[in-house]
């Protein structure tokens, strides 16, 4: 089952859910997603063109020279060999440099002496399978809608920018073989009720029963069967939106009547068949078993010899369709058709399966009859299809459906106890949770003394017994949320948790660059506990502390490290580089019996000299960039450096307002770095000191995506750029501007020079960067690099008022 993400969005609000997230959620709730594909992916420079003039090529009997409007001032000349190209049509144009199917690159060139600036494409050349391309365009190029705007990308007009989700539907979940069924399923996952917007049926005051009679000889073969009559239709191609939806679902568009039946098949999961009423040969439909050796020609032109095992639709004398499998050639809808007999039915699944297997005819319709359809929407699907045919083909729907047999869909009621649900799943779910799950599924449930009476609508005909309900609760609650228990038997070797592995790696990295681990008391004074806070928090006090210095649980790690720095400074230690990993304790309220929230944090402190004076050089005091370098090295070791950003901050009163930055992982605030405020440093009796504190749990919880990239066999290119900017402009701002405009071939940006002093305007600084470019698929040209550098130069000048030196 191919599901259109755009189409699904018409019934549910999935604006905050990406196709990948949706696919992941569906997979873990019981419907496996085989893959997600966006047809426009890997295509570029494919635009709308308008053929203004088309003349024959002077040196060819099949080529044409076209003057095409591609949204520019001048027309573009393109040589095209399609037999259906002509002036006045909108077409698909691949510009020079475009990539089409097979990663083929389109180049400007000459064809038999005539310049061709690109290519006019067929659907096959932009990735469509031959099996879904409309027949009128199968041997030529595709015509686009008249309202397509020349120069715009073509993908939105063909819905190629849609995400197509391929579902692997198991036989027990045939309800998901329709867009409505999938909408209900996704609605249950995201707690939304689908909103459908079906075409309203308008009937004319002429009775359908005056045009046709319907008889079903055995209701077991066709428990439900009805015919609607639509007169005065005009057969024509379907509108582009309908063709797009069918092609994205893997179905070839035929015409506005047949396409509607296929559209409703996907929408409702209800197979329909349209007969040419005038070619039936009678005003009667009889559903019966075939006679021995009876012959019938199907739509594919093959003559079939039938057996009594086959159910057939007849005109009272001869077969006109194989029930649930394929229609007949003699009654198919053609361009001359003016009156439609629209069939909606429910056929015996076993009979359809045997007939399909006997003649090796597998179709979307037969698959659904074999697996089951929603008996409650047979008539509704027929009405919607009739209304759409009337709308798209200009027909008139006669009053009433002519019914040969009908089935009344009944809701199923299943009783189950909460104890039995929890017993099977190993959970402790409450009545409220289970009731909410049933409500999300659209089931009506009442509970009395722990016993549920659940009424299941006909659209979920797979649910009949207790076990079915337990499965529904489990998958909507989340299989990943079900408790797990260790297996009984021999003990096995344990392993580190993710938290433990991360902690060990952090220790290894920081100690590798010269920091020493400190371990501070978790108890401190209320004043120190309230310093360097991430978020506002109430202190957690001990009822009977041993001393006032150990009366409150710490809410930061930095105050403990500053005590350690003060201890070492008092003993004349000049090189101080500490880190600590430990829990801090936050409390949102002052409720006495409420336990605090524990968070694992990392803190660092540098003070004194980074390099001592010796015979090789002078002493070097620690500064902000020593500490930031240590953090950057840590983030790089944890594969997070590309997701980290720094922002200047003055919010933490214990930190220097001009030398402090907050740290963000993606969009999440995870910590801060900077110099301890001189007033705070004086209170601790310590010299100039730089500290940082980070929420380790936020790092552990952050989901990183690793994409394998092979080492390029093509050489990289480096270009340098020097610029003069105001001293308030940050390196991060400059790097972000460069990365935003330099293009996809930019692989690295490195600052290698900073200068302030003589020959530089006061309040400004000179910075120099090295930009590295690499194309994994080809050797970069000077033109490509120069274009990227020109864009960088322009953006730096416009946004940051930089002067390029």
UniProtKB/TrEMBL annotation:
It is found in: Cytoplasm. Mg(2+) binds at residues 462, 468, 471-472. One of its GO terms (cellular component) is phenylalanine-tRNA ligase complex. GO terms for molecular function: ATP binding; catalytic activity, acting on a protein; magnesium ion binding; phenylalanine-tRNA ligase activity; transferase activity; tRNA binding. Residues 712-805 form the FDX-ACB domain. Its cofactor is Mg(2+). Residues 40-155 form the TRNA-binding domain. Its EC number is 6.1.1.20. Binds 2 magnesium ions per tetramer. InterPro entries: aa-tRNA-synth_II/BPL/LPL, B3/B4_tRNA-bd, DNA-bd_dom_put_sf, Fdx_antiC-bd, Fdx_antiC-bd_sf, NA-bd_OB-fold, Phe-tRNA-ligase_IIc_bsu, Phe-tRNA-ligase_IIc_bsu_bact. It is an enzyme of class 6 (ligase). It comes from the Bacteria. Keywords: Aminoacyl-tRNA synthetase, ATP-binding, Cytoplasm, Ligase, Magnesium, Metal-binding, Nucleotide-binding, Protein biosynthesis, RNA-binding, tRNA-binding. Residues 409-484 form the B5 domain. One of its GO terms (biological process) is phenylalanyl-tRNA aminoacylation. It catalyses: tRNA(Phe) + L-phenylalanine + ATP = L-phenylalanyl-tRNA(Phe) + AMP + diphosphate + H(+). Its main location: cytoplasm. Belongs to the phenylalanyl-tRNA synthetase beta subunit family. Type 1 subfamily. PANTHER family: PHENYLALANINE--TRNA LIGASE BETA SUBUNIT, PHENYLALANYL-TRNA SYNTHETASE BETA CHAIN AND LEUCINE-RICH REPEAT-CONTAINING PROTEIN 47. Tetramer of two alpha and two beta subunits. This is Phenylalanine--tRNA ligase beta subunit. The gene is pheT.
